[in-house]
Design goal:
Elements lengths: L2 E5 L7 H11 L4 E5 L5 H14 L3 E6 L9 H7 L7 E4 L1 H4 L6 H13 L3 E3 L20 H6 L5 E3 L7 H10 L3 E6 L5 H13 L6 E4 L7 H9 L15 H8 L3 H4 L6
The structure holds zinc ion.
Zinc ion binds next to loops.
Length: about 260
């Protein structure tokens, strides 16, 4: 099974963008489709329709704890009520600290309801985004306070990859998505070798970050990882460890039943 745990549709109102996305999603068995941070209400309804129409799509609703209602009833209705299975938070883009008191209230409810939380605090950043709030170590307090909450740090928490590696070593319920840019060979090499040396390859989830990259080319780059090192003495990573990331059953990991 291949689960792409990080995808977006460029524009839900653009039928061509939706068609492109659906074509790309044919290459995987399931994908987490993340709502965008702007205009959450409209986006959620359109996203919900897509998710309901396609069994491969696992929707994540965008939650802004500063603005959204935080009762258990309101969160249930905004997430499972619309057919979603998780929540995505854009702390740096929306300008809230990951441990803001309202965010902590949200995590308490998410933990109780078994809703996984995806922290999408990675590039590309707008000039207004608060880079401070993108730092993965700020999620440490969240993981300590809510040890049963399942957390995904998006895109390895780039550009703060070292902080992400530390979080993955430290917390059993914190994972990270290995969405790579197949054109940035040296960056891919460093992320994968650092994860391998930190012995946290089993905490990495496959993600493409579509539309920034397509799952097919990400898989090809990862499987050809050791070929990147041809004619060098640089250390490699056992191919089975990379294959295990690509084939990880991320649905079971997050208690999400296949539709
Ligand atoms: Zn993304």
């Amino acid at each position: 099974m291949i689960v792409d745990c990080h995808t977006h549709i460029r524009s839900l109102s653009d039928s061509l963008a939706v068609a492109d996305f659906l074509e790309v999603s044919e290459k995987v068995d399931a994908c987490f489709l993340l709502a965008d941070p702007c205009d959450e209400g409209a986006d959620s309804k359109q996203l919900s329709e897509q998710v309901r129409q396609n069994d491969k799509l696992i929707g994540f609703a965008s939650v802004n704890p500063l603005e959204d209602k935080l009762s258990e009833k309101a969160i249930t209705s905004a997430i499972s009520g619309l057919g979603f299975h998780g929540a995505v938070l854009y702390c740096s883009q929306k300008g809230f600290h990951p441990t803001h008191s309202r965010a902590m209230r949200f995590y308490a409810i998410a933990e109780e309801l078994g809703i996984p939380v995806f922290f999408h605090n990675s590039p590309p950043f707008t000039s207004e985004a608060v880079l401070d709030y993108a730092q993965p170590y700020l999620i440490d307090e969240v993981a300590r306070t809510f040890p049963s909450l399942k957390i995904i740090i998006g895109s390895m928490g780039q550009p703060f990859v070292d902080q992400t590696l530390c979080m993955l070593c430290k917390h059993p319920n914190v994972y990270a998505d290995l969405s790579i840019d197949p054109t940035k060979i040296w960056q891919v090499y460093n992320i994968v070798i650092n994860a391998h040396e930190a012995d946290i390859m089993d905490k990495l989830l496959f993600g493409s970050g579509y539309p920034f990259a397509e799952p097919g080319s990400c898989i090809e780059t990862l499987l050809g990882f050791n070929k990147l090192l041809a004619d060098t003495n640089l250390p490699g990573v056992p191919r089975e460890k990379i294959r295990a990331i690509i084939e990880r059953d991320t649905l079971s990991l997050f208690d999400i039943a296949a539709k």
